[in-house]
Amino acid sequence: MKKFLTYVLTSAPFLYMILIWIMSGNPDDAVLRLPNEGLDRFIKESLHLVEFGILYGLFVIALLAHGKLQFTLNFAGALIAIFYGFIDEIHQSFVPYRSSTMIDAAKDLIGVTVLFWIVNRTYFRNPDHSLTKKMKRFEAYLKKD
After folding, report:
1. CB < 8 Å & 24+ apart, contacts of 91-98
2. Does residue 56 surpass a pLDDT of 70?
3. 32 dihedral zone (left: phi>0; alpha: psi -120 to 50; beta)
4. What span, in angstroms and rounded, lies between the C-alpha atoms of 118 and 124?
5. Which of 18, 34, 105, 129 could be disulfide-bonded to 122 (CB atoms 3.0-4.6 Å)?
6. Could you give the count of Cα atoms lying within 13 Å of 52 in the half-sphere of its Cβ?
7. Which residues are CB-contacts of 1 (< 8 A; sequence separation ≥ 6)?
8. Per-residue pLDDT for 15 more than 80?
9. pLDDT of 84 above 90
10. Rounded percentage of the chain residues whose pLDDT exceeds 70
11. Segments in 25-144 forming alpha helices (H)
12. d(CA 66, CA 5)
């Protein structure tokens, strides 16, 4: 069961990248359109901050699942998430009824950077932090046979 969980956690960031690609290939109102235009735009614009932070977080979990969460691999995961945000913006520029802006790319970057900062301040610099302890327990749980 733990081996299966490890496979799922390893594939999660890549499956999420596919989901992002599919969702970006649709008009912005394909899934949900709120009746209030301003609120609809605000929520969808704010999702850029969250969407790529989640992608980076999935890379962190995948690294934890293999006991490989080290600073260099963590940094590489953040760079991949940021780069994919830029690729997604380019992809959206070719989709009818979608837009691609540097502001959106900056929001993607900020979402990843905030979570990267949190992981670095807890996991790598503060071993007594409750989040670090939980991450270490999770890592140890997956290592046990």
Report:
1. 91/21, 91/24, 91/25, 92/24, 95/24, 95/25, 95/26, 95/27, 96/27, 97/27, 97/28, 98/24, 98/27, 98/28
2. yes
3. beta
4. 10
5. 129
6. 31
7. none
8. yes
9. yes
10. 87
11. 37-65, 71-93, 102-119, 130-143
12. 11
Instruction: Report pLDDT for 38.
Output: 66
Distances (CA, A) of 73 to 29, 45, 56: 36, 29, 11
| Tokens 């999660």 belong to residue | 12
pLDDT, residue 8, reads: 95
- Residues counted in the chain: 145
Q: How far apart are CA 65 and CA 61, in angstroms?
A: 6
Average pLDDT in the chain: 87
Instruction: Estimate to the nearest angstrom the gap between the alpha carbon of 43 and the chain centroid.
Output: 17
87-134 residue pLDDT tens: 998 998 888 877 788 888 999 999 999 999 999 999 988 888 888 888
User: One-letter amino acid identity for 113?
Assistant: T
**Residue 26 backbone dihedrals phi, psi, to 5 degrees:** -110, 160
Encoded tokens for 81: 């998430």
Q: What is the CA radius of gyration of the chain?
A: 17
